[in-house]
């Protein structure tokens, strides 16, 4: 599956199949939350949250790809990600784009 954040793929003509998306809500356990709170006092990367967001993006992307495959897509164009805080320590990540079929 080809994923691009542009509205074209060089050298390819395609038909649009429709919007596809994938989402997940992820959180860290209380121990990681406490560690992140302490880290925020001294500054620096909150590695536990970075890891959580990487995992969440990967899950959301895989779910978007699965939806595109069900439509028979060859690629997803205009891929975008969005995030939102659901509760303290938990975030939703959504991946979305337009599924296309090559001519």
UniProtKB/TrEMBL annotation:
<dbReference type="InterPro" id="IPR035439">
    <property type="entry name" value="UPF0145_dom_sf"/>
</dbReference>
<protein>
    <recommendedName>
        <fullName>UPF0145 protein CPRO_14970</fullName>
    </recommendedName>
</protein>
<dbReference type="InterPro" id="IPR002765">
    <property type="entry name" value="UPF0145_YbjQ-like"/>
</dbReference>
<comment type="similarity">
    <text>Belongs to the UPF0145 family.</text>
</comment>
<dbReference type="Pfam" id="PF01906">
    <property type="entry name" value="YbjQ_1"/>
</dbReference>
